[in-house]
Amino acid sequence: MKVLCLFDTGVDRGECHLLIGLKQAGVEPYVICRPGTARVEELREAGVRVECWNILSKIDPTFIRRLRTLIRVCDFDLVHAFRKSALSNYTLASLGLGHRPVVAYRGIVGNLSYWDPFSWLTFLNPRLKKLICVADAVQEYFLQKRFLLFFHLFDASNVVRIYKGHRVEWYARDPGLEPILPALGIPEQARVIGCVSRIKARKGIRELIQAMALLPKTPAAHLVVVGKIEDRSYEKALAESPVCDRIHLLGFHPDAARIAGEFDIITMPSLRREGLPRAVIEGMAQGVAPVVTDAGGSAELIEANVSGLIVPPGDPGALADAFSRLLADDALRERMGTAARQRIQEHFNVDATVAQTLAVYREVLAAS
Question: Which residues of the chain have pLDDT under 50?
Fold first, then answer.
């Protein structure tokens, strides 16, 4: 089975091991991804063919010409588009060259309009045979999607949920490495609530900052936010916070996954449209107790009150109550951290992702 796997970005660790697992199962992936991706050599060492290409836009004529050449020369059985722009370019490239079945991946809730012509080149394209959603919340969004309020475009036959898999061993802490947070100015004995996320309004960073002012004064908790700043709607809340000296926005950091393992609590306070936040998984895999909002797929990571706490989105008071509960009880926090690690190991495992993806490929080809 030859599968053209398309990315307009790099390949993350979970995707890398999915592709390697598919290769080991007898699939022949041909991967196109952005140049400079850290996982390219790992893929090539595993025998996966990789072509690096910098896709410039959702309609890139040069890339479309390259894809048309590949379609003619390589006898692909199936196409798996892992990114939206890769999917739109393939849709245009394949015109007039036959109808190879296409599988696509969707990682977030919402942001899809019938009135956007681009949508009909991607997830609303009737030639799309199967849509793989990263979370139940994403799948449900598509299953409820109606066209002009009259009929559904999607059903259980063409929309499935497959969690993106991990291995807890990937995140094992190296005892020989010095902790990162003290070197960044975080007091060594501080209790740290951490969030790893691009800073956008829908991520709830403003509400997270507001929650910090509602915590008890002892123990004095610090908030660390790691991620690229893309929106500054949090600035007013930060300027007005009486505990702003204990709030640290670090920006992008290349060792974000390792930093997540140094938190006492990891949180994702999203307001809406969350998929399956990788940063929370990385913290949970290292035994860090999570607190997330019930927005999108975040809550699916957690068995409530066993492997973490779930609160309503947009509620700083509820966030503060959850943080206070864990900060006040070391045994509870440690117990939930241990259960969190176990949950990732058992329910978000890359071997299951490989098996389920392979089953989708076989189903799609059998129906073609």
Answer: none
